[in-house]
Amino acid sequence: MSKAALEPPHRTRVDLPQDTLVAIGLILNERLADVLDLERQAKQAHWNVRGARFQPLHQLFDAVAALAVGWADDLAERAVQLGCVAEGTLQAVSARSELPVCPLNVNSADEWLHVIAEALAFCANAARADIKEAAAADDDITADLLTRITGEADKQLWFVEAHLDQS
Ligand SMILES: [Fe+2]
To answer: Which positions fall inside the Ferritin/DPS domain (predicted)?
Structure first.
């Protein structure tokens, strides 16, 4: 990689090495794409879920979407604090997100629960994996942000998985 590729586009007084700013900025944009994709998937489920459990699931999926919007704002603003560009357009998110593709519609409420469980789990587990990378790069602020997001996503995943336990 050339030296130029290791410099963030904007100068910052944050005293982390340039290559760290770029590496953490990329991580933040990867996680940003995840959670924005999750937000879209949760709204898709919120709008289209049907059945006897409509009301609680309608509200649960909306709560997931609202949390994802907050996570996205914090991830994007951390990337900018590090001198990087926050890449949150639909096109950028579509190109970068590695979440399972969300169907436009499914045949049951349980299928929507599975869709959102998979999307939430991807977001939580990817953020969890990046905590150590941020900490190893001495960026404790990003590590702390990812830790908070992972904790909140794990909690939402519990709510979703609990609906799938029929026993
Ligand atoms: Fe709504």
So the answer is: 28-166
Locus of tokens 């977001």: 123
Distance from the alpha carbon of residue 43 to the mean position of ligand 1, in angstroms: 8
Domain locations in the chain? 17-164
Q: What does the pLDDT profile of the chain (167 residues) look like in tens digits?
A: 444 457 888 999 999 999 999 999 999 999 999 999 999 999 999 999 999 999 999 999 999 999 999 999 999 999 999 999 999 999 999 999 999 999 999 999 999 999 999 999 999 999 999 999 999 999 999 999 999 999 999 999 999 999 998 65
Q: How far is the CA of 62 from the centre of ligand 1 (A)?
A: 7
Kindly give the distance from the C-alpha atom of residue 12 to the centroid of ligand 1, in angstroms, as a whole number: 39
